[in-house]
Amino acid sequence: MENGPNKYRMAAQGTRIELYNGTLKVFTQVPAAIELCKYFRESYLEKHSILKSPEATHSNTPESVRVEACEDFEKDPRVQGLWKKIINSAGVHSPLSYACWDRVRLRIQQSDGGYDNVSNELNSTGRFSSTLPLHRDTWASNVMQQLNWWTPLLPIDKDRTLAIYPNFFEKPVPNTSQQWSMKELKNHRKKNAPYPQLPMFDVNCNVVGLEPMQKEDKDAFFQELNEDAQPILISPGDVIVFSGAHLHGSVVNKTGKTRFSTELRTVDALDVTEERHARNIDGHSPGVQYKWFESIGELGEDEGIDKGVRLDRLVEKIKTT
Ligand SMILES: [Fe+2]
Description:
Number of strands: 10
CATH class: Mainly Beta
Bound molecules: fe (ii) ion
Number of domains: 1
Strand content: 5-15%
CATH superfamily: q2cbj1_9rhob like domain
Number of helices: 9
Structural class: alpha+beta
Distance between the termini: 27 Å
Order of helices and strands: HEHHHEEHEEHHEEEEHEH
Shape: globular
């Protein structure tokens, strides 16, 4: 029987494999997540007082205010530190040395904004998007080890949250991953021109390996999709973790209240080198974006892994040692 650090390593690996197979994991009332919510309520909203009332309708908060708040949150060392504690306590990446992340995000999803669109001032299409259509994160990243971490900072409800479509984990859906490009997104952002934030579900899209859908097939497809939607109803302090290969999207918020949530993505470098991952059933992105992730570091210093090492370089390092 395994014991010591290896026991935790094997348990973490087992948890990640479950996640790669489509399991949704909810960690309830995580102390660091509770502390993050408290910090958000008592300190952060005080500082960004225009966002202050948790029950207010924020359908007219200017984008500049939301961008400033998101930037502040993302760079806040205390927020980052609490997120590291959340990841560490979940035991999904043990040791944390090989865990990489992209960046902490704050989502401020106003009511009545609809899906992100540059022509709609209620939402944002820069780095701080708020209402995303159906997608798999892996359509963009092509990193099949990607795990998504999501937690509400204030109470949510079924009409202002995230929805996951569990049955579609195994079912290919038409999407624009073949054509979409991060480079093009950046070019369009500079010009303030419309471009999808990410590869999207597109029922009219011709996809490699999928026949174009007939009308009756489309009707059945949308019915199945609607029946499968699972709004995530967890409390502040709870954290959900799921494979980036899951089909998911923002529930369009029409509640008259803002949704405040925070999220990030992780990738375990050992799973990249040892080829453990979710199955790619319908992604056709031409590249694999390891460079979007970097080592969380700190707890990995004993193993010679510094903070901020890009995932592609970390993978090379592991392979050569
Ligand atoms: Fe996503």
